[in-house]
Write a structure and sequence with these properties.
CATH class of the largest domain in chain A: Mainly Alpha
Strand content of chain A: under 5%
Order of helices and strands of chain B: HHHHEEEEEEEEHHHEEEEHHHHHHHHHHH
Oligomer: heterodimer
Structural class of chain A: mainly alpha
CATH superfamily of the largest domain in chain A: MetI-like
Radius of gyration of chain A: 26 Å
Number of domains of chain A: 2
Helix content of chain A: over 70%
Largest interface: A-B, 47 and 46 residues
Largest sheet of chain B: 5 strands, antiparallel
Structural class of chain B: alpha+beta
Radius of gyration of chain B: 32 Å
CATH topology of the largest domain in chain A: MetI-like fold
Number of strands of chain B: 12
Distance between the termini of chain A: 13 Å
Shape of chain A: globular
Shape of chain B: elongated
Number of helices of chain A: 13
């Protein structure tokens, strides 16, 4: 039962992290004047629209001005612009923490809803399809190849993977995407260059799914191509380090068969960091990849975040997304803490 | 292991050797680039459309003909700063700027233009005339320009076309059409209507009436001479330069982008920029990361806890979204981008180094130093830091490509510093204007390849350092 206390402490720390990130975000939004600028832009945009429609009905210029001024005051109050960000933004944060993501001011979901949760739910599956799929493919390849290389350190295959992984580290993923578009979409005309569906999209059902898969091939290939080398290399190095430890030598000295040594004495010990990477990766994959989604014109979470920051700036979406991303991370970390209790016996004794 | 042994161990590896060589090449090219390019290259030239006005837009490199097989005409700039011939007679001097041009006659040029820059005169304004001397001996005076005389209140010497050269598009200039029409009539007896000739000026200037197909113009291969004649009335008068541009569809070594910019220049200028970004960001990140890591690991206690918690938070927020967020809000100056890069990339090193320090601290060396009364700072500096130095250096080198890639990514999203062209920005420009979908490979492939070459150079050096840093690997070899 001594487990509950450390877990509770970790959980508290993680909640603290969540708040710290949101606090940092709010201070940045507020102190830089970004928040005020955004809201002012929204208000003046609405006032401009109003002036146009009202000038048709109200002829008297004085009365027009008065009506507009009243409406402007209403808007300012509605968006709490009369208050400083120090008061306004914490409200947003507390609302978001209560899982009410609020309404977007400029962005919309695909069927026109302004609710941020609708927008996020639109994008999340798209991102999962792209990023999570490629992570799973990468991890499967890495976990199959990595340990095998660890037993043949210095071999040709091992060196090839080291170099490939070094080159992958040096490759901008998005540029690889561009290159693949140039080759497969432009030169060979085999696959679509971007987007999620053909225009017009095929009817529902299997043909539609097939169309989606066809559009996903290039981005997934891009992501796997760039990440698989480093992943194999990472798994290989982790297992290699364990394989050189004394307890492995002892196990071999005892005459245990290689497969048992590998499974029980190497992989079992190397598992925690590998699982850590995998789970954090899975959680992170849901945040999307801004660059790859941009290249392939894919409506995922990364793209959404980018739009919310610089396309058509939308504060509530920024706050909500940051919360969602951090929450995903914090949740993943907590799952890990619990998993560690099973994976790493040492945790139980601290 | 002494420093010399480390160096030998490092250079014994192929990655180490290749990496060092490549780095030397990159550094030399950067130095040459810094020495030859003006510091305000970005503002004054790269983003100034007037500089690139004469260039073809989105033209592939001149050597691409070899691969594509279609014979495109090479874009040529012919420039003369000194007259080839000077004829002086009483009171006036005719200076001829002669530029030979050998025309391959595969394709007609898109256009022919002449620019004359920096005319200075003292008494009478000079007259300028433009001539073409063709392979078959025929000649035409295409244009004549009188330099504007002194204005009220202006005093000698008078300067004209100094900032902006006089530019005449000979393929559409009415005077040139008339001159060419006359020449066709005199030389070939071909009477072409001016309005018809105007449509085909680019062919007519470099061609003659076709013998097989009457009414059409065949291209005339051979050596042309394009001449600017300046008639000056004072010995002190001068003309800075004359330049002809034969508008082709391929350009130079690396081609041009959608605005006609010479990509070779942008690519070369991007190298020192990338190196500076990478190295500054890496050094600063290492200083902060290593400093905090060693401090936290050795001092321990509350200091350590605060540093670790903070590092933990920063380490786990995704880099790119935050960079985008801050750069978009605060502004995209290069120094700000560097600042944010450093602010979000130090924790990895801190966390790694702290755990290393914890190991070293419990060793006997430190124990005996403490016993001998060494101070905390002395121990950190003299005993802990040297043990980790090779590792820190290899981490520093790993950080260089990371910073270069991060900046490139940011630039690619349109958040780069607009006053300093980088490879990422060239790519962004290409992607935004659809170069990828139009297959303008010369625009999108070279910047990426350069990013990779630069990054791989540092990766190779880091890889070569691995046996120095990790003694386990030495046993393996």
């Amino acid at each position: 039962m001594s487990l509950i206390r450390p877990l509770a402490i970790r959980a508290l720390t993680l909640v603290f992290v969540l708040f710290a990130v949101l606090l940092l975000l709010v201070i940045t939004l507020g102190a830089t004047g970004f928040s005020d600028r955004l809201l002012n832009a929204v208000v003046s945009e609405e006032v401009r629209g109003l002036r146009q429609s009202l000038s048709q009905t109200i002829r008297d210029p004085d009365e027009l001005e008065r009506t507009i001024e009243v409406r402007r005051q209403e808007l300012v109050e509605f968006y709490d612009l009369d208050q400083s960000w120090v008061r306004r933004l914490p409200d947003t944060v507390f609302r978001v923490v209560k899982l009410d993501l609020g309404e977007a001011r400029t962005l919309k979901s695909f069927d026109g809803s302004r609710r941020v949760s609708d927008i996020v739910l639109d994008r999340l599956p798209n991102t999962a399809l792209l990023l999570t799929t490629s992570l799973v493919i990468t991890a499967v390849i890495g976990l199959l190849v990595g340990p095998r290389l660890a037993t043949r350190v210095g071999s040709k295959a091992d060196r090839a993977v080291s170099y490939f992984s070094a080159v992958s580290f040096a490759m901008p993923t998005w540029w690889v995407g561009i290159l693949l578009i140039l080759i497969f979409a432009f030169k060979l005309n085999l696959l679509p260059s971007g987007g999620m569906y053909s225009t017009p999209p095929p009817a529902d059902g299997f043909p539609r799914f097939l169309d989606l898969v066809k559009h996903a091939v290039l981005p997934v290939l891009t992501l796997v191509l760039v990440s698989v080398g480093p992943y194999i290399y990472g798994v290989r190095t982790l297992t290699m380090n364990v394989a050189q430890e004394d307890h492995v030598m002892l196990a071999r000295a005892k005459g245990l068969p290689d497969s048992v040594v590998e499974r029980r004495h190497i992989l079992r010990v190397a598992a925690p960091p590998i699982v850590t990477g995998l789970i954090l990766g899975l959680a992170g994959s849901l945040s999307g990849s801004i660059l790859v989604e941009t290249i392939f014109n894919w409506n995922g979470m990364g793209r959404l975040y980018f739009e919310a920051v610089s396309g058509s700036p939308d504060e509530s979406v920024i706050v909500a997304l940051t919360f969602v991303f951090t929450l995903l991370y914090v949740a993943a970390r907590f799952i890990l803490e619990v998993l560690y209790v099973f994976l790493d016996p040492r945790v139980r004794y601290t | 292991m002494s420093r010399r042994e480390m160096l030998r161990e490092f250079l014994a590896t192929w990655p180490g050797r290749i990496g060092t060589f490549a780095l030397a090449v990159l550094v030399v090219v950067s130095i040459v680039a810094i020495a030859t390019f003006p510091t305000d290259f970005g503002k004054a030239k790269w983003s100034n459309p007037a500089v690139w006005a004469d260039n073809p837009k989105s033209a592939p490199p001149a050597w691409s003909n070899i691969f594509t097989g279609n014979d495109q005409l090479r874009h040529e700039k012919l420039k003369a700063e000194r007259p080839g011939k000077v004829e002086a007679s009483d009171g006036l001097e005719v200076r001829s700027y002669v530029m030979p041009y050998s025309f391959p006659a595969h394709k007609p040029p898109k256009f022919l233009s002449v620019s004359i820059g920096g005319v200075t005169f003292h008494e009478r304004p000079p007259t300028l005339s433009v001539h073409i001397l063709r392979p078959d001996g025929s000649e035409a005076a295409l244009n004549r320009e009188a330099v504007r005389g002194p204005r009220d209140g202006e005093s000698a010497p008078y300067s004209r076309f100094k900032d902006e050269p006089l530019r005449v598009a000979l393929t559409s200039e009415p005077a040139a059409v008339d001159a060419l029409r006359e020449m066709y009539l005199d030389t070939y007896g071909a009477d072409i209507r001016s309005s018809d000739l105007r449509q085909v000026m680019n062919r007519a200037l470099f061609g003659k009436p076709s013998e097989s197909k009457p009414g059409e113009i065949a291209l005339l291969k051979g050596r042309y001479e394009l001449i600017v004649k300046a008639t000056l009335y004072d010995g002190r008068d001068s003309v800075d330069f004359s330049r002809f541009v034969v508008g082709g569809t391929t350009f130079g070594l690396m081609g041009t982008d959608g605005q006609g910019r010479d990509l070779a220049q942008g690519l070369i200028f991007g190298l020192p920029v990338a190196l500076i970004i990478g190295i500054i960001a890496a050094v600063m990140t290492t200083l902060i990361g290593a400093g905090l890591g060693i401090l936290g690991g050795y001092v321990g206690g509350k200091t350590d806890m605060v540093i670790q918690r903070f590092a933990d938070i920063v380490n786990n927020v995704p880099l790119l979204p935050l960079l985008i967020f801050f750069v978009f809000i605060v502004g995209s100056h290069l120094y700000l981008i560097l600042l944010f890069l450093v602010a979000f990339s130090w924790p990895g090193l801190t966390i790694l180094l702290r755990s290393m320090v914890l190991q070293i601290r419990s060793g006997q060396l430190i124990e005996s130093s403490i016993a001998m009364g060494a101070s905390k700072w002395r121990i950190m500096y003299r005993h802990i830091f040297p043990q980790m130095a090779p590792f820190i250096i290899s981490q520093l080198i790993f950080l260089v490509p990371a910073a270069i890639l991060a900046e490139a990514g940011l630039s690619f999203l349109g958040l780069g510093d607009p006053s300093i062209p980088t490879w990422g920005q060239i790519l962004e420009n290409g992607f935004r204007t659809g170069a990828v979908y139009l297959g303008y490979w010369w625009w999108v492939i070279p910047p990426g390849v350069l990013i990779i070459i630069t990054a791989v150079t540092f990766m190779l050096i880091a890889l070569g350092l691995e046996p120095v840093v990790n003694p386990r690997l030495r046993k393996v070899r």
